[in-house]
Amino acid sequence: MEDLKKYVNKQITVSGFAEKIRNLQWVQFIVIRSEGKRLQITIEKSDEKNSKLINIVNNLTQESTIKVTGILKENEHVKMGGMELIPSKIEVTNLSQDSLPINITNKDAALIDTRMDNRFLDLRNDYNYYIFKIQSEFVRAMRQYLYDNGFTEIHTPKLIGAASESGSEVFKVDYFGQKAYLAQSPQFYKQMAIAAGYEKVFEVAPAFRAENSNTNRHATEFTSFDLEFANINSYEDVMDFEEELIVSGLKAVKEKYGDLIKELYGVDVVIPKRPFPRIKLQDLYNELHQRYGYKIPSHDVGDMNSETEKLTSRYALEKYNHEFIFVTDFSKAKRPFYHMRKDDVPQGYDLIWKGTEITTGAQREHRYDVLEKQAEEKKLGDDIKFYKNFFKYGCPPHGGFGLGIDRLTMLLLGLPSLKETMFIFRGPNRITP
Q: Is pTM, for the whole model, over 0.90?
């Protein structure tokens, strides 16, 4: 139902859901909804030729799907765009049952898990429906930015023979009697592509984490936006590129949906200035202690936790008036073995946005002998032999990062949980629908 105004006084056919039905003494009204757009259908009972239509509406139920043909008329008294459809034909393509299990016009009328049980209905609410229109535009714009900059999209396996991150957080699979896992990330295969001579690659695909965590920002299956590129000078090049990518995505979202996001979610889409602030982890600890009296717990020293991330964003806003901040110089004990090190410090970063980590990125170790030493240090055995082989026969310096699309969307729209921003949520206690 886009651009209806150009069809005024013409016959059109529209299809959608019967969102509202009003059966008054002299007139019947239907509000038909299609892809978030609405149109009023008006049937005058006094017109004898409408008897068949009147009977159809008398038996119509909310959320039935209908196909309506008629003349589009202007009517200044109609709130929905000042237009109404005067029908000559109504076809009920699927009659809905009388009682809906959830109220689709009020998303807060049911608990979140009840809504998840009825996700196909929950998504008919505008608030939920537009989450994925906005998410789609964000992904489209970032993907297009990569295409425009010479990246190749690849599709890596999700059944793998070795854990790519941590062996304690993988889903084990019986693969014809062999040991296999669901991929936590495409990390190993992104790097294989670099070793194969593809200098710029990316993938948008599911990833799996066997974390028994019931927080608002964790899921056992999520969509990851990963990229890797070659011939970098340092991890600073990776940070620079991520800035460009995020700015590109946010600009596209703001241009297409900025007003709607403000109206539905009460959030302004802020286009961040470049460069983003950057701070070393120890300097950050000092700032947070001096400003807020915060001291990192001993078991988290060398890394960040959720409280640190929240305070880091507060610091970035107060110090730099910026929603984003890079944190560097993490402990090697807290970073993967494949991060390059300089003076024993991993050459990587976390990117924090609105109190939450959205990226761990790095320059990778591409030298076979160094990589093997770092793998031995982490007590990684033959399981990653195939991965180390990628670097035996020449591989250029490279780096990359990954973004969780669902988490990005949650932060963009200021939503409380990943349950809202995943089309179908997967967590420790949810495997259906």
A: yes
